[in-house]
Structure formats: C-alpha cells, structure tokens
Amino acid sequence: MHDFVYKGKSLYCEDVPVERIAAEVGTPLYLYSRATLERHFSVFDGAFSAVPHLTCYSVKACSNIAILRLFARLGAGVDVVSGGEIFRALKAGVPPAKIVYSGVGKKRAEIEYALQCDILQFNVESAQELELISQVAEALGKKARIALRINPDVDPKTHPYISTGLKKNKFGIKIEAALDEYTKAAGLPGIQVTGIACHIGSQITEVSPFVDALKRVKAFVQALSARGIAIAYLDIGGGLGITYNEETPPHPSEYAGAVISELQGMNCTLILEPGRVIVGNAGALVARVLYTKKSDAKNFIVVDAAMNDLVRPSLYDAFHEIRPVQITGAPGIAADIVGPICESGDFLARSRQIPDLARGELIAVMSAGAYGFSMSSNYNSRPRAAEVLVSGDSFSVIRQRETCEDMVRLESIPDYLT
Ligand SMILES: *Cc1c(COP(=O)(O)O)cnc(C)c1O
Q: What is the atom index within ligand 1 of the atom nearest the CA of 241?
C-alpha cells in the first residue's frame, strides 16, 4: 500500500497534488511519501518484534540522507556497501553501532574508515578480504567484528542480474569453504567473529528460497558451534519483493513468520537488510510529455525523464506502472514511453496501454523509490533529477535538481590545451 492516490481526477502524493509539486520544482523529479516510508518500515520491523532483531535498511536502494534520517528516527540501522554509504549514514544520524558493511570489493581506506567509525559488523565476502581487515584492524589497534557472508547456493527465482546466492554469483563465500574460513578467522589477531550473513538476491516473491537459505545457514551455525565458534548475529540479508505489476510477494508478516519459526532454538540477534520492500512503492518518478510521435508501426510518447533517471526498464526490462497525473478521459492507445537519450534502449515502458497523452501532460512512473534515483547517472549530460519528500500537506526538496555547472565542477582542461 502506498499514498499515491487519485482525488477526483488528479493524482496526489498524500495530501499534495503531484501537479503542484511538478509546477514548482520542475520535472523530472523523484517524489517520496513520508507516510508510506514510515509505514513500510514500521510494518516490516514490527513483524519481527517477537525476536531480538535489528532492521538495517539497505542504503543503496534509496540513499538520500533525509530518508536515512527518517528511518534512523524509527530506530533503524543500515546495511552499507561502500565508504560513501557509511558517510551518508553517519551524516543522517545513524549510530555506528547499527551499521553493517557488505560488498565484495571493500578497499583498504574504506575498511580503515569503517573501523575508525566503529561500525557493528563487516560482512566479509572473501578469504583475502578477511586477511586485509585483520591486518588493518591490527595496525589500528582494534578488533574488527565480522560475519562471513555465506553463499548458500539457493535459487531465488528472480531476474539473473539480481540473483546473488547462487554458486555462479560473485557474492559471498561458498558454504563448503566457509567452515575453514571461520576457523581461520577465529585465530586472526585483528578479528572478532560475531556473526554470519547471507543475502540471496532481490525482488524475491516467494518465501521458500529464504527458508531454504536459512535452513542451510542454521545447519552451518550448529557446525560452527560444535567447533566452539559462537554466532551472536544472524544476518539474513534483504531481497523481499514488491508488486510492480502482477507479482504477489509475501506480506512482511508472512516472511517474518517463516523466518522466526525457522530460528527456533537459535540464540542469536537477527539482522535484516530490507531495501526495495521499504522504499520501492513509496516513490514515483514524475515526468512531463515533451512530444508524441505516431508512425504506422508504433506510437511514441517522449517524456523528459530517461534511462539516466530510471535505468531499471532498460537494465532489467523491469515493469513500472505509468499513471497519468491528470485523468482527462482521452482514449487509450498502445505506446512506448521513451526518454530523450540517444539509445534505443532508452525507454520507461514499451507497448503500454495508456491514455493518449498530449504535450505538456504529466506522468508518474510508479514504484520508482528503490534503485531509482540511487542508480541514476548524468549520461547524455543530463543533470540528475530533484528529489522531493511529501509529508501530509507539505513537501520539501531533499535534493536539488543538478545544474550544468554541477556536472562539470570536477572537470578541468590541462595546460597544454589552454
Ligand atoms: C542490495 C542488498 C540488500 C537489499 O536488497 P533488497 O532486494 O532491496 O531488499 C540487502 N543486503 C545486501 C548485502 C545487498 O547487497
């Protein structure tokens, strides 16, 4: 459920007409509903209230510091995948003791930064990374709290680009090798083993892959315990899917129920790393129609948002519902909704049944809150969109639209060309 609803013939975000925001802020723009964000977080987090747990929102899904602050105020921790995300999280007021750090390619400087900030845990993805973390920690006179990210080799039945828990994926340490790695970790001077982690993929719409992964992790924790290695934090990652189109993902309470019953008899604090399920349906990308083109073969609606703003349709052939911001009663047509970028892959929707929109009308690309702005780029030298947070009957710009000056700020022309 989200808070983008029609009132009469106009689309609103909470109590503000989307048209008004577009008129004031310009397009394209990302729009988020505070009520939806808070409700989604609370429903998810609340579903685990029966067990000791920490919900670590996955920063990469939507990284704006205002949104991180909003979750931090609800008690959230965060899952980060870079030093930049640690920086954001701290800026937003997330306590370091609630930060877990995943990712296959942590650099030395990032590891030092994370250690100096005293984050809760590194989720380690390789033997070499483990050694480097130990060295860096030792040099700083610290002990790094670590979990090994286990690759449980389960098929999450999602798009291959967003599956991460299969043997062929680059993530994690294969479960067969992990026992030896843990034994090694326990003996390293800069390391304190605190947890175990897994994350099997994203946009998962069934409970069974999570349960399968958890069963493997559970058996593994028992094997560790037999070797005298205790696990305090069991991090089961993120990945719960949302409805973009016709998907019927489990409700967080169903997911939580399955996880909690699998945890019986385990004496750990659960860590969860939800991203998409919290923010996906809490955001929309608003764009204006620039031109319409009709040929014998196709109808095109050219809008001012493009693949640089929202790459998911181009990258994963992902479906996003497209809504007219004003209902005009225009007849329906089948059209491709495309952006201005010079790539045939630049589309937001293809062969979509949509009202015959006219120049100047607005559309809302729904379910764009996750992996929307955070994956946006400046391709074709397009300044990145503004981000706006609605709260009740008011709205705030939480990231200004970039300017052309912003785009060239870090560039320079060498002397020999002057
Ligand atoms: C991306 C990611 C998440 C969040 O995934 P969602 O599908 O958005 O819930 C959680 N943990 C890790 C390690 C990730 O890389």
A: 7
Q: What is the distance between the alpha carbons of residues 115 and 95, in angstroms, rounded to a whole number?
A: 14
The answer to whether domain 34-276 has CATH 3.30.465.10 is: no
| Residue spans per domain, the chain | 4-31+280-408, 34-276
* Ligand 1, CB within 6 Å, residue ranges: 58, 60-61, 79, 81, 102, 199, 202, 237-240, 273-277, 370
Ligand 1 site-directed mutation target among 37, 101, 273, most atoms within 8 Å of CB: 273
Q: Are 171 and 199 in contact (CB under 8 A)?
A: yes
Q: How many residues does the chain have?
A: 418
Mutate to test the pocket of ligand 1, among 41, 58, 99 (most ligand atoms within 8 A of CB): 58
Token pair in block for residue 244: 């973009």
Tell the CATH superfamily of the 4-31+280-408 domain.
Lyase, Ornithine Decarboxylase; Chain A, domain 1 (2.40.37.10)
- Centre of ligand 1 from the C-alpha of residue 252, in Å: 15
Do the first three CATH levels of 4-31+280-408 and 34-276 match, i.e. the same topology? Answer: no
CA distance 233 to 231: 6
pTM equals 0.96
pLDDT one-digit tens code per residue, 249-301: 999 999 999 999 999 989 999 999 999 999 999 999 999 999 999 988 899 99
Span 23-69, pLDDT tens digits: 999 999 999 999 999 999 999 999 999 999 999 999 999 999 999 99
Q: What pLDDT does 380 receive?
A: 98
CA of residue 330 relative to chain centroid, distance: 36
Q: Which residues are catalytic?
A: 342
